[in-house]
Amino acid sequence: MKFMKKQKKMRYNKLNKGLRMIDWKKIKEDLIYFLKSEVEKSGLKKVTVGLSGGLDSAVVAVLCKEAFGDNLNCVLMPSQFSSKSSSDDAIELCEKFGIKYEIISIEPMVSAFINNMQDDKLRIGNFSARMRMSVLYDVSSREKSLVVGTSNRSELLLGYGTIFGDIACAINPVGEIYKSDEFEFARLLGVTDAILNKAPSADLWEGQSDENELGHTYKEMDDLLKEMIDNNKSKEELMSMGFEESFIDKISYRVKANAFKGKLPTIEKVKKEYMREQLK
To answer: Which listed site, 77, 220, 276, 278, has its alpha carbon 20 to 30 Å from 159?
Structure first.
């Protein structure tokens, strides 16, 4: 026990040595510019955001409200497994910032297929995420708008998201922000306390928790990811900083195993000589 405490203290000291403050005001300005610029490039004027009642979508919604005003449309998409508090928290945020929203239940879609999924929570969760994205893209087609993504950097690196589900989007302003850092940004933006104070959850089934599923807090994982990915530290260097070998191996495996989720489909290149027309 004394060794573990000493190890954790050493890691804390090394990770916080030379710690820099994050300039969230500047980041906010850059992200709003990014949003306006990318939407303008598309030739469109509106954006659509799926609002879950969680931190990530709240941050994106507030940024989009400032960037596009009434040209933002948020969509709440509860299922039979969603907690009522999620919708309540999302609506409270919309009311505070004057954000237009609509509620479209995905319960009929999930119910129509659920018997095929053998009560598998993961399959039901992934299916639900894909149904929500189908709804979002249909709404974006109706509104002639772009779908703005809400996945943070922690989720994207760990593969904690559904391919062609919540990961799908046209543009994403928060994909370079770690989850554990995002709370401070959300406070600056004025996100409501109900959202700031709740435990991170995809709300895919009752009692579901991101950190319980992942086995570690976002802070623990982000500390490692920053050194492993951003600072390109070797396994030996990470261990010398106090990270346990099993933890490094686990997170490293997740990053590598889920990297495909962030890539476009691989297309085989057919040799040109095979494609030439035969001379007649």
So the answer is: 77
